[in-house]
Amino acid sequence: NMGMVVYVVLIIAFTYFYAFVQVNPEKMAENLKKQGSYVPGIRPGEQTKKYITKVLYRLTFVGSIFLAVIAILPIIATKFMNLPQAIQLGGTSLLIVIGVAIETMKSLEAQVNEKEY
């Protein structure tokens, strides 16, 4: 089904977009250099940026495939197991709920830590 292919491609594309918005390899390499830190075996500066970019591509690839599988599994299940169409949103809804829960926990944890100081 062409719609499913487009759905998977969009999930993968947006996962890469989000990863590179959240982790800027150039800025991270610059910050490491300013702090006097480095990645063992990698020279500070441009080499560090290239290394971080390479690692980010690899991790994002694995993560994007995982997200695509979770999102598409309910659609495949409804087609082959004659389940109700309402279940199709299960994977995407689950991802949203878990994402919101994780962000809420991080926010609460930050507030608790802030009050301790």
From TrEMBL:
Domain of life: Bacteria
Matches recorded under InterPro entries: SecY/SEC61-alpha (IPR002208), SecY_dom_sf (IPR023201)
GO biological process: protein transport
Transmembrane parts of this sequence: 6-24, 55-77, 83-102
Identification of the protein by name: Preprotein translocase subunit SecY
Signal peptide: none
Organism expressing this protein natively: Staphylococcus pseudintermedius
Pfam families reported in the protein's UniProt record: SecY
GO CC entries: membrane
